[in-house]
Design goal:
It holds the Pfam family Y1_Tnp. This protein has 126 residues and is of the alpha+beta class. It is built from 4 helices and 4 strands. A 4-stranded antiparallel sheet has the order 2-3-1-4, sandwiched between helices. A hairpin with a 2-residue loop joins β2 and β3. α2 crosses α3. The longest helix is centred in the middle third of the chain and has 19 residues. The radius of gyration is 14 Å and the shape is globular.
């Protein structure tokens, strides 16, 4: 992708409850990879813990970041609730999976290897 952008995204579960298992994180990565592909973007790095996920996304300047984020959160929420409903309902309630907010940091200034290493070092649940 020529003239593409990189962004480090962090999504947290509603109330930051530890709802994500290792299996769910693996499935979440698959879902988010597909969403990125649909936008012409590339999910380059993914990791997370019980209550959050980190993504490094390479996307073209024609993509509106807010629309990509809304799709990533919406599609993953829908699938994870459908596929892991009993577990999700035990940890989250009120119809929301992700918190309404998110972190988006441009990676233009930091070497991508530093951002990748940071994401890679995030803890997955045991």
């Amino acid at each position: 992708m020529i003239d593409s952008l990189h962004v480090h995204l962090v999504f947290v579960t509603k109330y930051r409850h530890g709802a994500l298992t290792d299996e769910m994180l693996t499935r979440c990565e698959e879902i988010m990879h597909e969403v990125c592909t649909d936008f012409g973007a590339e999910l380059q790095q993914f990791n997370g813990g019980e209550g959050h996920v980190h993504l490094l996304v390479h996307y073209p300047p024609t993509v509106q970041l807010s629309k990509l984020v809304n799709s990533l959160k919406g599609v993953s929420s829908r699938y994870l609730r459908k596929e892991y409903g009993t577990h999700v309902r035990r940890h989250l309630w009120g119809g929301r999976f992700w918190s309404g907010s998110y972190f988006a940091g441009s990676c233009g200034g930091a070497p991508l290897t530093v951002v990748r290493q940071y994401i890679e070092n995030q803890q997955r649940p045991v």
